[in-house]
Amino acid sequence: DGGITQSPKYLFRKEGQNVTLSCEQNLNHDAMYWYRQDPGQGLRLIYYSQIVNDFQKGDIAEGYSVSREKKESFPLTVTSAQKNPTAFYLCASSRGRQNTEAFFGQGTRLTVV
Amino acid sequence: AQSVTQPDIHITVSEGASLELRCNYSYGATPYLFWYVQSPGQGLQLLLKYFSGDTLVQGIKGFEAEFKRSQSSFNLRKPSVHWSDAAEYFCAVGSGGYQKVTFGTGTKLQVIP
User: Fold this and answer.
1) What residues of chain B lie within 8 A of the CB of A42, using their CB?
2) Which residue from A28, B33, B34, B105 could staple onto B74, CB 3.0 to 4.6 Å apart?
3) Residue B103 has what pLDDT?
4) Mapped to the 3 state alphabet, what secondary structure does B4-58 carry?
5) Å between A26 CA and nearest CA of chain B
6) Cβ-proximal residues to A1 (8 Å cutoff; 6+ apart), any chain
7) Nearest-CA residue of chain A relative to B7?
8) B68-72 long-range contacts, Cβ below 8 Å, gap at least 24?
9) How many CB atoms lie within 10 A of CB A50?
10) What is the pLDDT of residue B101?
11) Is the torsion defined by CA of B7, A38, B89, A98 positive or negative?
């Protein structure tokens, strides 16, 4: 089945530690995205990538980093610089052209303890 | 700047009743419009989208939405709600790639027997 896989579903991290969230897609999509979701705030864009080896900051990139070494993979690292990392993180992909929609993974809930 | 307003944070309807979720947007050109649904702890699933053409759009699960340019609205409707429709619904607007898509803050739907 084609789709987007995020892992793990739940993640706990101690303050001061970096943590990496995985996102893999087998839809052959060029573009991939990371969103953060907090209650009552909708989705906010962290980073996006329209092509391998290239990525751009979104609206709330501070404290996060990404890489795009393969078309299928777009991991997100939440660094210790992120002041309030506890949230639900969603990865998405799209063909990247206009007139297309994005498909979402099942999300990773990160809790800082 | 583009924006999306979902004025209803929570809506409660009886099973079998009709449903209308409101979405108003601000956008400088002809928008691309989307409705997504999210079950608790899950990713977003696309219900329907409008890019051009017929302003009444049919989607999955019996949902439809109507694009009204004069009112800057894209309301989601369903004639008869099922208990399984209880979820959170997000309206989104944008074009030219998902990095330019803005999501609303969502409407939580509760369905009572």
Assistant:
1) 90, 103-106
2) B33
3) 93
4) EECCCCEEEEECCCCEEECCEEECCCCCEEEEEEECCCCCEEEEEEECCCCCEEE
5) 17
6) none
7) A40
8) B71/B24, B72/B24, B72/B25, B72/B26, B72/B27
9) 18
10) 87
11) positive
Q: Is residue A21 within 8 Å of A108, Cβ to Cβ?
A: yes
Both tokens of residue B70?
A: 């004069």
In Å, what is the CA distance from B105 to each residue of A9, A43, A49, B22, B49?
23, 7, 24, 12, 18
CA distance B64 to A26: 29
> Tell me, what's the pLDDT at A98?
67
pLDDT value at residue A39: 86
Q: What is d(CA B48, CA B63) in angstroms, rounded to the nearest whole number?
A: 8
Cβ–Cβ below 8 Å for B97 and A50: yes
Cβ–Cβ gap B43/A105 under 8 Å: yes
Contact of A21 with A11, CB cutoff 8 Å: yes
Query: Using the beta-carbon criterion (under 8 Å), do B98 and A98 form an inter-chain contact?
Result: no
Give per-residue pLDDT as tens, A38-84.
Answer: 988 889 999 999 999 999 999 999 999 999 999 999 999 999 999 99
DSSP state of B80: S
Smallest Cα–Cα separation from B40: which of A41, A6, A107? A107
Question: How many angstroms separate the first and last alpha carbons of chain B?
Answer: 41
- Please give chain B's pLDDT, 113 residues, in tens: 789 999 999 999 999 999 999 999 998 887 899 999 999 989 999 999 998 888 999 999 999 999 999 999 999 999 999 999 999 999 999 877 777 889 999 999 999 99
Residue of A nearest to B89 (CA): A42
